[in-house]
Amino acid sequence: MSVVLPILRALRDDGPVSRAELGDRLGLTRPRLTSEVGRLVKAGFIAEAGMAASRGGRRSTLVELHPRLRFAAVDLGADSIDVEVVNGRMETIAAYREAADIRKGPKAILHRVSELLAKARVEGAHDRLDGVGIGVPGPVSFRDGVPVSPPIMPGWDRYPVRELLAREHGCPVVVDNDVNIMAVGERHGGVARSVDDFLFVKIGTGIGCGIHLSGDVYRGVDGCAGDIGHIQVDANGPVCSCGNTGCLEAVFSGAALARDALAAARSGASPALAERLGRSRVLTAKDVADGAAEGDVVCIRLIREGGRRLGGVLAALVSFANPSMIVIGGGLAQLGHVLLAEIRSVVYRRSLPLATGNLPVVLSELSGRAGVTGAAVLASDAAFEQVP
């Protein structure tokens, strides 16, 4: 069994370490470790990093991931592009964020991604990339590296994202959906960093769930596990972008909340929202959050109703998967503790006590960086797995 991946991951996650300590952590004999580390040094993945503190005998040499390693992390949203270049320790070297419409299609969006990575190269962030990780806001065949029938991404169906980026950048590429990369990011550097079994729920333009079980993301046979936004919660509800009726994200998501806020403003039910509509001529989830903070009862009700719908779906998942944590992230996490309290109330009330007795339901610590963090981790894994 190859120990290359555990060695490289340990150095990525924990930083420089002596050969002796690395061997102890991974349960490797000294000859085996010496052989593997020597091979990785020759391959350019590991470098020596000075002397370790004495452990009572001869001092050992520290080893670390090679400082030249660079990985690109890309998080595509419905209306944004986030790109980062990181080193082997997942430390940010360059970062770019800008507005973009995913509906412009893959050629325009991926061309802009490549322009940003070229800009990073010109600015000295990298000479070459060792891996690229990219998340997209729709279903993905993880095996094939392509989006599959994404409801809000016209023109992206079966587009060869992985093949195109691998050819352009000459390195391994991994493609996943946005909520999975957020779950990986939260596990690596967020509130779930010491948790092997948790659910990461993204509430934004759509709703999805990253399922992290036994220390890894569970994607299902075809890569579409966790697509909870299209679970029906109201048979008489509005038509969803997927074509079905009453899906969770059709009744509670960024677009749904903006729709309901607009109706409340125009009807006069919410003076706070009517005032904001008069000023800006458009309403967003932030307007609802601000209205709720000011005590507007309609805004509070909209958030609570959304939390109740989402909480009902999560209660079923808790009973099914028995996770040790639920993390709430995405743009609508800004709705804050009114939303969180309603979700908690429903989950704790409708799930069995054995499943919820020690179940924290918390907001993401990484906020908008969960996606790029996870994409960087997946990019590094893809590169590490290519080491012969």
From TrEMBL:
Q: Report the coiled-coil segments.
A: none
GO molecular function, one example? DNA-binding transcription factor activity
Query: Which Pfam families does the record match to this protein?
Result: MarR_2 (PF12802), ROK (PF00480)
Top-level taxon of the source organism: Bacteria
Q: Record's CDD domains?
A: HTH_ARSR
* Family annotation (PROSITE patterns): ROK
Which InterPro entries would you find in this protein's record? ArsR-like_HTH, ATPase_NBD, HTH_MarR-typ, ROK, ROK_cs, WH-like_DNA-bd_sf, WH_DNA-bd_sf
Q: What is this protein called?
A: ROK family transcriptional regulator
What is the originating organism of this protein? Actinoplanes awajinensis subsp. mycoplanecinus
